[in-house]
Specification:
By secondary structure, this protein is of the alpha/beta class. Strand 20 (778-782), helix 21 (790-800) and strand 21 (807-812) form a beta-alpha-beta unit. Helix 1 packs antiparallel against helix 4.
């Protein structure tokens, strides 16, 4: 009994020990299986989140790209701005997504891949922003070209980085799933051993229960792995070391048109690659170390689709070790959509280039048709202005030339905008009078300024040379744009041009021309908008003043080309000051035309503070007059002076002016009345009195003071312009080829004004015949003529050897850089755009003389 009890106790103890051991082993195995299950859950959840993250990232990047393409290929500037804003909103969403990251992207491989995506995204944004800048500054052509060569490449790099991240994530998931399977098999083995031990202690029932639980967990792990593979939108194929397919997802079945049964065990090379690309996978596998954290190598290959044709694809391969065996994971991206986008982009680029060429052709034709008659108008006005005309007729000629010049500048603005987009603006430096240039810029805005009752004038400091070398047309164009805006946005007070100079080296000065007004002013936060194309500010009442919004944008570009810039200083309600700086060379060989001395003439100036008073005072000082301000306390009585009075400030009729003048000059003194409304005063100021209209022209004021003072050399007419530059080549043989008879006559008179004799030809055939009979020093060749144009005429003259040493200068109403290039390719040596001016023609002939001598 005691023996049986002792054995029972020992057996019970053994059973208890076995039971405790089994329970302990079960607890460990259960913990392992539970950990395996949790790992599988985390793997599935993390991969799902990661794939969702990558999908959203790819969609956001494509959205930024798509909207940018809309902006690049729409001709509507407003839509461009809207698309640019939408693109920046879309890139903000991508930034937010990248900042959030994904909780799964924490391994060394995925972290490195994600950092590469962030880097590629930032690089693409730099290219995207540069394209936007080019689009706003230079238009679609340059921005689309930049996008094709730079932006598209960086976007493809971004796509590659995203694809690599997806491939790496999928491959890593596959590796972890494979490891989970191996762990499950190991746990199952341990479970079998535990169950075998438990059979002794607990019997077959416990064994069956434990095995069933392990099998359920294993099935769940396999289901998770399959779900992960099926969630990937791109094809993923796994093979063994020999290249036989061991796993394939639904995306691969769909893309390649195969079934899982067809794929398993098949050679991957023959399964997915078209014959031209066979062997490519094996080549990149040899270059891919197992589980490398580097971006896996990628190649482009031709894929084979069952039931369909070949298609372009991109392939990345990752190799790794699973259960001691080397395994390939092949990730495939279908490039068909990308190729379609690239083709659409090329087509859009070609369409944009064709549209740009059509626009250039249209502008060139319109330039020729408008500039041709303008050549006759402006040239005739210049020639008339060089004759002895009475003051009234000279003023009419000045108005005629000013209006024609304004029309010419409008055409130039339109052409300049196109040339700025194409980067095709060139400068033509000539010698000119800065004072005359400013006066010409004031002419077109005189009428609107007078209608508003504005004082309009200029003041030039003694440091400014009157004769300079620069591009006169561009300087006048910038000044006119600034003056037009100042008059447009000023309702009372004055608009003034104040000019100073700064030494910038030997014979070089920086001219500083400040256009100041007493208008409403511009709030500081709107200053950046002023120089943007098509941007307009209202006048403070919600209505705009009109215009295209091109003037200031063109002015800024031209000022930079002239070696300076344009800046604005203004506050709301405090007026505006636009400062135009440009570089010029002094030209001491040309003396000003209105500098006859007024030494010995006593002048009392009745002027108020402001631009009119400043202009009169600086002019009197420059002419050497003995002058004083009538308001000076120390004003002394002396010989009868000439009184120069601002009638708008001191009275609008002769009686009131004479009453004021009598207080300072007891003897009757001649009055020079400066006024905006001179037609009301003309009859009230008989000679020796004079009326000078505003804006004050220096030569008119000078002539009026001299006449009122009774100077023997006084002339009621404005001083005749200085003669053109003497060429010193009166014997120069010149042939003028021009089909338009009026323009031919104008050019002939200009050449005769320069003291030159000229032969004429009305078409290209006559020019060839004349050139064959006589050697000409210079041939002035119109480019557009009936029969054969100037380009073909030049080619034939050059081929025939006739006038081989001649300098051939193109005369053309076209104004694009491509036209100049075509002229030079045809054998021409120079290029003169119409309308011609005596000064520019003289400069071209001087250059021809130097070229002939060299």
């Amino acid at each position: 009994m005691r023996t049986w009890l002792s054995r029972s106790v020992r057996e019970s103890s053994l059973l208890v020990t076995l039971a405790i051991t089994v329970i302990a082993l079960g607890a460990f195995v259960a913990r392992d299986l539970r950990g395996l299950t949790e790992d599988s859950d985390q793997l599935y959840d993390g991969l799902s989140q990661g794939l969702t993250f990558i999908g959203e990232l790819e969609f956001g990047a494509q959205e930024v790209r798509r909207i940018l393409l809309y902006a690049l290929h729409t001709p509507d500037a407003n839509l461009q701005l809207q698309y640019i804003d939408q693109s920046r909103v879309a890139d903000a969403r991508v930034h937010a997504l990248l900042d959030s990251r994904s909780p799964l992207l924490v391994s060394p491989f995925t972290r490195a891949s994600l950092e590469l995506v962030v880097s590629r995204w930032q690089q693409y944004l730099v290219a995207r922003d540069e394209e936007i800048g080019l689009l706003l500054e230079s238009g679609p052509a340059r921005s689309v070209a930049f996008d094709e060569h730079e932006g598209l490449a960086r976007f493809n790099q971004l796509r590659e980085a995203i694809a690599a991240l997806r491939t790496g994530l999928s491959s890593e998931a596959a590796v972890r799933a494979q490891e989970a399977r191996a762990s499950a098999e190991s746990a199952t083995l341990r479970l079998v051993l535990m169950v075998l031990s438990a059979l002794v202690a607990a019997g077959i029932g416990g064994y069956r229960i434990s095995r069933q639980a392990a099998l359920e967990r294993l099935v769940r792990s396999e289901a998770h792995k399959s779900s992960i593979l099926e969630a990937v939108p791109d094809p993923i194929i796994s093979t063994d070391a020999a290249g036989r397919v061991i796993e394939i997802n639904k995306a691969a079945e769909r893309v390649f048109g195969i079934t899982r049964g067809d794929a398993l065990g098949a050679d991957i090379d023959g399964l997915i690659l078209a014959p031209p690309s066979r062997g490519a996978l094996e080549a990149i596998v040899r270059r891919s170390p197992p589980l490398s954290t580097d971006i896996p190598p990628r190649i482009e290959a031709v894929g084979a689709r069952r039931g369909g044709g070949p298609f372009p694809m991109e392939v990345a391969v990752v190799t790794h070790i699973a259960a001691g065996e080397r395994v390939w994971t092949v990730h495939v991206s279908d490039l068909t959509g990308r190729r379609q986008v690239e083709q659409e982009l090329r087509s859009a680029m070609q369409a944009a280039e064709a549209a740009d060429q059509a626009k250039s052709d249209f502008l060139a034709t319109m330039s020729h048709e408008i500039r041709t008659p303008l050549h006759g108008v402006i040239g005739t006005a210049d020639l008339l202005n060089r004759t002895n005309l009475p003051t009234e007729q000279r003023e009419l000629v000045r108005m005629l030339r000013s209006s024609a010049t304004t029309l010419h500048d409008v055409v130039s603005d339109i052409l300049d905008y196109s040339r700025i987009e194409a980067g095709a603006i060139d400068l033509l430096p000539v010698t000119f009078s800065l004072r005359a240039c400013i006066q010409e810029a004031l002419d077109p805005v005189t009428e609107p300024a007078l209608r508003k009752g504005l004082d309009l004038g200029y003041a030039i400091s003694d440091s400014v040379p009157d004769s300079i070398v620069a591009d006169e047309q561009r300087v006048r164009q910038v000044l006119l744009n600034l003056l037009s805006n100042a008059v447009k946005f000023t309702d009372h007070g004055e608009v003034a041009v104040r000019v100073t100079a700064e030494d910038a080296g030997e014979d070089v000065v920086t001219i500083v021309a400040a256009v100041c007004d007493s208008g409403r002013g511009i709030p500081e936060h709107l200053h950046d908008r002023l120089f943007q194309r098509f941007s307009q500010l209202d006048n403070g009442t919600g209505t705009q003043k009109g215009g295209t919004g091109l003037g200031l944008a063109i002015s800024r570009h031209l000022s930079h080309m002239l070696g300076g810039g344009v800046a604005v200083s203004s506050t709301d309600g405090g007026g505006s000051r636009f400062t135009f700086r440009f570089s010029a060379r002094r030209d001491a060989s040309h003396a000003p035309s209105d500098e006859r001395s007024l030494a010995g003439v006593r002048v009392l100036a009745m002027v108020a503070p402001g631009i009119i008073g400043d202009q009169i005072r600086t002019s009197l000082a420059r002419w050497g007059a003995d002058w004083q301000l009538a308001t000076d306390p120390g004003c002394e009585h002396g010989p009868t002076p000439v009184i120069v009075a601002d009638a708008d400030a001191f009275g609008f009729d002769a009686a009131r002016l004479r009453a004021r003048a009598g207080a300072i000059a007891p003897n009757p003194a001649p009055i020079v009345a400066v006024t905006r409304v001179h037609t009301r005063l003309d009859q009230q100021f008989p000679p020796p009195d004079r009326v000078v209209p505003k804006p004050v022209r220096a030569e008119v004021l000078h002539a009026a003071i001299a006449a009122a003072a009774g100077r023997p050399d006084a002339d009621d007419r404005a001083a005749r312009p200085a003669p053109a530059v003497a060429l010193g080549q009166e014997s120069m043989a010149i042939l003028l080829v021009e089909d338009n008879s009026d323009n031919r006559r104008v050019a002939q008179l200009m050449l005769e004004e320069l003291g030159l004799h000229v032969d004429q030809a009305a078409n290209g055939f006559e020019a060839i015949e004349l050139a064959a009979r006589r050697k000409y020093d210079v041939i002035l060749m119109d480019t557009r003529m009936p029969g054969i144009d100037g380009l073909e005429t030049t080619r034939r003259i050059r081929r025939a050897g006739a006038s081989a040493a001649s300098v051939i200068i193109a005369l053309t109403a076209n104004a694009m850089r491509s036209d100049e290039a075509r002229c030079r390719e045809a054998g021409m040596d120079g290029y003169l755009p119409k309308p011609l001016r005596v000064e520019t023609l003289a400069a071209a002939l001087e250059a021809a003389v130097r070229q002939g001598l060299s």
